[in-house]
């Protein structure tokens, strides 16, 4: 069983330092060319892999240009364009409705505040944080996706379960200058090593400070279940 450092602050800083060394080129994997494409890609990425989203948006972004075209298209046609994406019917509705709001209330521009973004259909705090960080260079929180949620609990950085509560705890212990990068580091490590079902603790740079280290610990702190 790994032994966490003395305080959550030190634990979080050590996690960031080690993962930065391990993944020096860590960054967002969604492909987009402007803020609207970023917003759409993040909406589509909910419960769907970035790889699948990128494959779908390659042709989507060729067909539609700007919020006017998404707002004008028949929702069923848009859904058909997204039919390899999970929950594509709902997401087509979110995209069409969001683009209508962007046209009606924001002069055709993707808004740049948390409050305005989360008023768009299908946009919660996680999506808004991604758009703010990568579309507007505004970092006011930490994106908590499934990887961040899992790793933060396994590493003893939080015992919270809801993304909003996890974000608030992480913002208190992760150095503010790393709020954006923390997410990408967790995603890369979660994909490569600290997977949901069968993490490779023997090849993990965090094993010695991880209280969930498989083999020594009986419990996966991410799920609360025995290994």
TrEMBL record:
Catalyzed chemical reaction(s): 2'-deoxyribonucleotide-(2'-deoxyribose 5'-phosphate)-2'-deoxyribonucleotide-DNA = a 3'-end 2'-deoxyribonucleotide-(2,3-dehydro-2,3-deoxyribose 5'-phosphate)-DNA + a 5'-end 5'-phospho-2'-deoxyribonucleoside-DNA + H(+); Hydrolyzes mismatched double-stranded DNA and polynucleotides, releasing free thymine
First and last residue of the signal peptide: none
GO biological process: base-excision repair, AP site formation
Record SUPFAM superfamilies: DNA-glycosylase
Residues binding [4Fe-4S] cluster, per UniProt: 194, 201, 204, 210
Enzyme Commission designation: 4.2.99.18
Note on cofactor: Binds 1 [4Fe-4S] cluster.
Cofactor(s), names only, from the UniProt record: [4Fe-4S] cluster
The organism's place on the tree of life at top rank: Archaea
Protein task: DNA repair enzyme that has both DNA N-glycosylase activity and AP-lyase activity. The DNA N-glycosylase activity releases various damaged pyrimidines from DNA by cleaving the N-glycosidic bond, leaving an AP (apurinic/apyrimidinic) site. The AP-lyase activity cleaves the phosphodiester bond 3' to the AP site by a beta-elimination, leaving a 3'-terminal unsaturated sugar and a product with a terminal 5'-phosphate.
Protein name, as recorded: Endonuclease III
Organism: Natronococcus occultus SP4
